Amino acid sequence: MKAFSPIQVGHHQLQHRIVLAPLTRFRATLEAVPSELMVEYYAQRSTLGGLLITEATFIDELAGNYKQAPGIYTQEQMEGWKKVTDAVHKKGGVIFLQLWHLGRVGSSSLNPAKEPVVSASSIPIPGNNPNGRPYETPRALETDEVKELVKRYKRAAINAMKAGFDGVEIHNANGYLLDQFVNSHSNKRTDEYGGSIPNRCRLSLEVVDAIVEAIGEQRTAIRFSPNGGIHGMKDDTPVETWSYLTSQLQQKHPQLAYLHFIEARSDFRQDDKVNTVDTLDPYRKLWKGPFITAGGFSTASEHAVQLAEKTGNLIAFGRSFIANPDLPERLRSKYDFNKYNRQTFYTHDAVGYTDYPFYNTISHL
Ligand SMILES: Cc1cc2nc3c(=O)[nH]c(=O)nc-3n(C[C@H](O)[C@H](O)[C@H](O)COP(=O)(O)O)c2cc1C
Predict the structure, then answer these.
(1) Residue 52 in contact with residue 78, Cβ under 8 Å?
(2) Which end of the chain is more exposed for a tag (fewer CB within 10 A), N or C?
(3) C-beta separation of 14 from 7 below 8 A
């Protein structure tokens, strides 16, 4: 089975293609330092030659600051992450850090100086936030601030190397800052970062260029969600937009560790109905390197294994990997899955985090 056959990703030969999707869990300390609990959680999910992607991690304290989400901008945070990467490596695993800036999804109350949230344009997310209040209207970044942002991502990538990561994944999905630049409905800029598809994609590509310059193509990866819809994302010509991004990356950086795409069907805020309609073929065809597909496989694990067989894709699992620390083994051996508990996705302790049982520790009599 291809899902359990080796594949080269960056500098690493993986032994299987089942990937831990990036999953925010809010188990860091109040100083945004990775905790001992996080060391245990990632170690539990590490396998020989298996790829883990961390939860989204703030590039600096202006990038969002959600309580108990981790950062990668202080010495303590780097040391905390080093314990995670050491524990994962000890089991033969490979781990990439996901780099995060919320943009307009954030809140001025989380900014150290209580300054307004920022975005590509001064356009709020339509509707209400999870607290039932309208989203804040962001301030559009000045052109020189956009250029500064590229340097901030680069610094975070360098810090990730100091923390022992094998690479970084740029979070360019799910309606966060970089996605806000790419989508036509959230970007109405008139400078070189807005308007045409190349202009809206310019920031993402500059961030990739800067990180590649600092740590190399093989340690750099990026995540996209064409047609995602989360956080008010909408683009007039999604296939053209993400095909442009993909072909630019293929042309300029063919050795990137991987491209990671989320299926349009994916909305992890609701429980899935089985849906196996795949929408990522246009981008798959343009990218010759490792390609990760994510979204909606938790209720369609057979489909995941078949898709890997057909395409050679790596498959990232979110909710099933939360509930099954030994997910690759369960898939390989066709064992039943533990069910995830949504109530503990974002709580702050071990319950629903490190206490999901491994298959071989459950009594099956
Ligand atoms: C609790 C939770 C937290 C998530 N946090 C992140 C995140 O930090 N970064 C990200 O790119 N996606 C995040 N996602 C999306 C997942 O990576 C994944 O794309 C989604 O869960 C769909 O995969 P699934 O159907 O296997 O769960 C999160 C999803 C869940 C359920």
Answers:
(1) no
(2) C
(3) yes
Q: Which domains does the chain have, with CATH numbers?
A: 2-361 (3.20.20.70)
- Whole-number Å distance, alpha carbon 312 to ligand 1 midpoint, is 22
Q: DSSP for 301-339, please give it.
A: HHHHHHHHHHH--EEEESHHHHH-TTHHHHHHHTPPPPP
Contact assessment for residue 70 and residue 33, using Cβ atoms and an 8 Å cutoff: yes
pLDDT of residue 363: 63
Measured from the CB, is residue 266 less than 6 Å from ligand 1?
Answer: yes
Cα–Cα distance between 230 and 155 in angstroms, integer?
28
Q: What are the DSSP calls for 102-124, one per residue?
A: -GGGS-GGGSTT-PPPEESSS-P
Of 292, 298, 312, 204, nearest to 253 by C-alpha is: 204
Q: Which residues, in sequence order, are CB contacts of 361 under 8 Å at separation 6+?
A: none
* CB of 290 closer than 8 Å to CB of 274: no
176 a catalytic residue: yes
DSSP code at position 230: G
Check residues 364 and 133 and name the one with the higher pLDDT: 133
Distance 143 CA to ligand 1 centre (A): 31
**Hey, what are 333's tokens?**
């051996």
Protein residue with least CA distance to atom 11, ligand 1: 22
Ligand 1 centroid distance, CA of 146 (Å): 27
Q: Which two tokens stand for residue 339?
A: 């069910």
- Please state which of the ranges 75-79, 207-211, 249-253, 276-280 shows the lowest mean pLDDT: 276-280
Does the beta carbon of 297 sit less than 6 angstroms from any atom of ligand 1?
Answer: yes
Tokens of 280: 């990522």
DSSP secondary-structure letter at 27? -
Mutate which of 18, 23, 96 for ligand 1 pocket (most atoms within 8 A of beta carbon) = 23
Average the pLDDT over 221-228 and give the result: 95
Rounded Cα distance, 186 and 177, in Å: 10
Q: What is the mean pLDDT of residues 121-140?
A: 95
pLDDT at 102 over 80: yes
pLDDT digits (tens, 9 = 90+) for 275-317: 777 889 999 999 999 999 999 887 777 888 888 899 999 999 9
* Percent over 70 (pLDDT), the chain: 98
Q: Is 277 helix (H, G, I), strand (E, B) or coil?
A: coil
